[in-house]
Amino acid sequence: MNNTSLRFLDGLEQKTVEERKNALRSYMKERRGNNENRDVKERLLIENFYRAMFGNSMGAGTRLNVFVYLSFSSEAPTDGLIERLRLDGHNVYCPRIEKGEMQAVLYGEDFTLSSYGIREPIGEIYGGNIDVAVLPLLAVDKQGHRLGYGKGYYDRYLRLRPKMKRIAYAFDFQVLDSVPCSDLDESTDMIVTDKRIIACDCKRKILGE
């Protein structure tokens, strides 16, 4: 983390959690918008995702149901990841907001645009098992605390599916030493970036254990 980042984060210490979140969102959106070499980083992200999920087998013989966000604006791009997963025989589902809640819909050729301009798949809602969720974010720390966009869609979706593996998908500069969080924020199990794979320190309580 550079000195500018450290000075910015130091200035957040005296603010409430929500104030710190909002300030960090603004800062990270600007920084992410100035990101360069996205094509190279996308390829490295996909490679690291496959290493994280499948190791040396690179997915051979394993078929998963994977929930993947449809990237928007300056987010870590997922179109290449989705294409690779589908070519390898995995089932890919993407989010759609229905009546204020996020649902999984099988990825296809047809989409609509949400009120935020985000692509959403057309089709029936899938209510079955999801093995892995690939999560968007603005920032994340090594403990697994993820900073989203403040609407709570992913937190509510994850809370209802505690056994689903969670992977934060990000550019490496989005990994910070600490991210403000509250009791309502759902953590991630792993972080995949263009430079590394991080197993998070946060221990989630899984219902039924």
Give descriptors for this structure.
209 residues; alpha/beta; Rossmann fold; eight-stranded mixed sheet; three-stranded mixed sheet; 13 strands; 23% strand; globular; disordered N terminus
What does this structure look like?
This protein has 209 residues and is an alpha/beta fold. The chain has a single domain (3-199), classed as NagB/RpiA/CoA transferase-like (Rossmann fold, 3-Layer(aba) Sandwich), CATH 3.40.50.10420. 28% of the residues lie in helices and 23% in strands. The protein has helices at residues 3-10, 17-33, 38-54, 79-87, 153-159, and strands spanning 65-68, 91-98, 101-106, 111-113, 119-121, 125-126, 132-135, 139-141, 146-147, 165-169, 175-176, 190-192, 197-199. The strands form 3 sheets. The chain has an 8-stranded mixed β-sheet with strand order 6-3-2-1-7-10-12-13, sandwiched between helices. It has a 3-stranded mixed β-sheet with strand order 9-8-11, with helices on one face. A two-stranded antiparallel sheet has the order 4-5.
